[in-house]
Structures are given as structure tokens and as C-alpha cells.
Write a structure and sequence with these properties.
This protein is of the alpha+beta class and 190 residues long. The chain has four helices and seven strands; from the N terminus they run αβββββββααα. Helix content is 19%, strand content 22%.
């Protein structure tokens, strides 16, 4: 993925970058967490323009490996605050002044058993806004006193044992998982 600076885009094109950042909980859970997806929102300032997009990972999730969970899908939306028109993965579209293109890029799949991720690494992920408190508990089995304090190791150990028993053996090979429902990232703060 290109990482063209916002200032360069806005200086060279009639576009306002309204949003640009990482998406919490978008990286697949794993002993080594998948990379976070990014959200970008572009508003057209010119009278009209043509938007061409060739994206991927809208139908099949980025796979996890060795027990890691898949990442989140790519989503393309036109005017998320108004019509919220879902767009396909590949398209050519005529935009008019004021239109907003909202892109959530896929998050990478995780590697390894999420219940084996170092609880201190999970705490740091929560502190940095990469993982929510809810996912720290449900995906990683880590009980945090709060985002500012260390993990409760005894409670985490008990929770991890319960989660491990309830889920059974993890698939070790990558496998394609089709998107079952579309997460709504339009209201997330980046």
C-alpha cells in the first residue's frame, strides 16, 4: 500500500483528506498480531472527477496462519455520512464536488495461537489503540485491570484455559474464509 503524505495529495490534487489512520481490531488475532487496516476518506473539491479503484480482500478475508485469526475485509463506500453507498472491489465512478470516498483497507491475518500472545504485548496493543479491551479479553484471553495497568495474570490464565477448551484445536494451515457479514467501520474514530 502506498503511503503518500496527506500534504502532498492535497497540494497536488483537488482533494481534501478528511480521515487517515489505523482501524482498531482490524489485525487478525495471533501470537503475532496481523497488521492493522487503514481508513482513508477523500472529499472531492473539484466540480467532477473520475474515481477508479482496484482493491482486494472484499470477499475473502486475509488468512491467518498456524492458528492465527483472519484479518478484516476491505470496504469501499461513497458518501458514508449520507447515502452510504457500498461499492464493489473494482469500479470506475464519476464523482461530483463534495462527494466523499471512504476506504477501509484490509487488516492482515495473525500468526500463531492468540492465547499464546504475551499479555504485556496485548496491554501495549490496547494502550496504543490497536486492540480494544473487549478483543483483548475475547480473542487473546487477557484480563486487563484497565488500559493503564498491567494484566491480571491469574485471571488471564483461567480465562485462556476456558477459551482453549471451548474452541478446540486450531487450524494450522491458511484457509480462505468468505466474508460472512460486513463490519460497519464508518463510525469509528481513527
Amino acid at each position: 500500500m502506498a503511503n503518500t503524505p496527506v500534504e502532498t495529495i492535497e497540494a497536488d490534487q483537488p482533494i481534501l483528506i478528511r480521515r487517515y489512520g489505523f482501524v482498531t481490531d482490524s489485525g487478525g488475532a495471533g501470537r503475532y498480531r496481523g497488521g492493522l487496516g487503514m481508513v482513508r476518506e477523500y472529499q472531492l473539491l473539484a466540480a467532477e472527477a473520475t474515481l477508479q479503484v482496484r482493491s482486494d480482500r472484499t470477499r475473502f478475508l486475509p488468512w491467518g496462519n498456524q492458528g492465527g485469526r483472519p484479518g478484516t475485509p476491505t470496504r469501499n463506500t461513497l458518501n458514508p455520512a449520507a447515502e452510504a453507498r457500498a461499492l464493489p472491489s473494482k469500479f470506475l465512478l464519476r464523482m461530483k464536488e463534495g462527494d466523499v470516498y471512504h476506504l477501509v483497507q484490509a487488516g492482515g491475518g495473525g500468526y500463531g495461537d492468540p492465547l499464546r500472545r504475551d499479555p504485556e504485548a496485548v496491554l501495549e496493543d490496547v494502550r496504543q489503540g490497536k486492540v480494544s479491551l473487549e478483543k483483548a479479553r475475547s480473542e487473546y484471553g487477557v484480563v486487563l485491570r484497565s488500559a493503564g495497568e498491567g494484566p491480571d495474570l491469574e485471571a488471564s490464565s483461567e480465562l485462556r484455559a476456558r477459551l482453549s477448551r471451548s474452541r478446540g484445536p486450531l487450524p494450522l494451515e491458511p484457509r480462505a474464509e468468505e466474508v460472512s457479514h460486513v463490519p460497519d467501520f464508518s463510525g469509528l474514530d481513527a
